[in-house]
Amino acid sequence: MGGAVSIGKAYGFDKAASTSVIPRVMPGTQGKNKAPLQTPPNGLKRKLTMRHTVRLDTEAAQRVQTMVLDMSRTGRVELTSTADHDEAGVPLGTLTKQNLVCLRHIPEMILSMPHLTELNLRCNEISELPKEIGELVALQVLVLSKNKLSEIPEKLTKLTKLRVLEITHNELTALPRSLGNLGALEVLLVSNNRIITIPDSISHCQHLRILNLYNNELTELENNISFLVELVELNASNNHITKMPKELLLWKNMRRLFLQVNQIASLPALDALSNLEVLQVQQNELETLPSMQDLVHLTKLDANNNGIIALPADSISDMTALVYLNLRNNKLTEIDPQLTQCLELEILDLGGNPIRSPIPNGLADLSKLRTLLLDGCNITEDFETVVHAEEAGSRLVTGLIIELKACHQTSGNSTPL
Fold this sequence. Notes:
By secondary structure, the protein is low in regular secondary structure. Helix content is about 10%, strand content about 10%. The protein contains three helices and 15 strands. The protein has helices at about 60-70, 95, 395-410; strands at about 25, 35-40, 75-80, 120, 140-145, 165, 185-190, 210, 235, 255-260, 280, 300, 325, 345-350, 370-375. It comes from Phytophthora kernoviae. This is Disease resistance R13L4/SHOC-2-like LRR domain-containing protein. InterPro entries: Leu-rich_rpt (IPR001611), Leu-rich_rpt_typical-subtyp (IPR003591), LRR_dom_sf (IPR032675), LRR_domain-containing (IPR050216), LRR_R13L4/SHOC2-like (IPR055414). Keywords: Leucine-rich repeat, Repeat.
């Protein structure tokens, strides 16, 4: 069988992997208990002991060994079962394809492959990582998602070449204190665990670009995260966060910031996030949005279901690329005239607010606006008055009026993307 598909390519890593010197099973011998082994090329020899092999007590174990040996030649090993395999379109895991059951332990053979660069053990029943995991010194990608891990050993932080660490959907309550030793780390995915806090040492992961903390038990984002200058995406949604760092001056590369479904009452100024494209802070306890001047690349802002009274002055008008704005179910009493400067706006959801002010005439000039939701507001103005008489016959304005009338009768549901 062929080697495992590269996980690293999914994150943009295309470097060729090193070749393992572990002996290979000769063709046609997979079904025999005493398969002859081919001597590694270039005269390299290695004593094969039980520490380097999987015990061949069963046919299944032998088949796993054969898979590992075959894959190891590429530097990549993938031993995965298939989660939700009854759903159409879900690809089969490598173990599932061979009618093999989930792994409960990492095969010892793998722990003796110092040239391994990628290891994918997603969707198994592994509950413990052996300390020998730290001996895989060439490892760049490690995927352990959807297992039963309750802790990550400190030895794992010896993997100083690791660039991607994916350990989502486990039972973790903490990350290694020495996490900062992973100086090459670029992607850290730890969503759907029970993590309470992030170790201070994470500030030393200066190459970290993507950090996913979704659906954990965090109560605050501490200042150590604010020093991650290369961050492009942070997802800390679905936690219990009440406190944010005081300043976010170093997040100049941040493009996507997800903080929804927390208990955040205030946000620090976001003016420095000049490359921000997506900001999601819905379902928090915000009474106001922070200063967001010069966010000229922001395309999506979702702040529905908060307690926002008014929009920040001289901020919204700078959002010249804004396409989607959702402020549903807040406490706004007027439609801010700044919105008429958002010329790229396509979807504007202001439903469920106690808005009493007239609709600004400038909204009719937003040529790309296709959805305006004002249901649940207190506006009694005839929507026809929004349009100047000389423009009433234009295709654009006629379409907008129809949309406005239709939206005035909608339910309280938020507009999807």
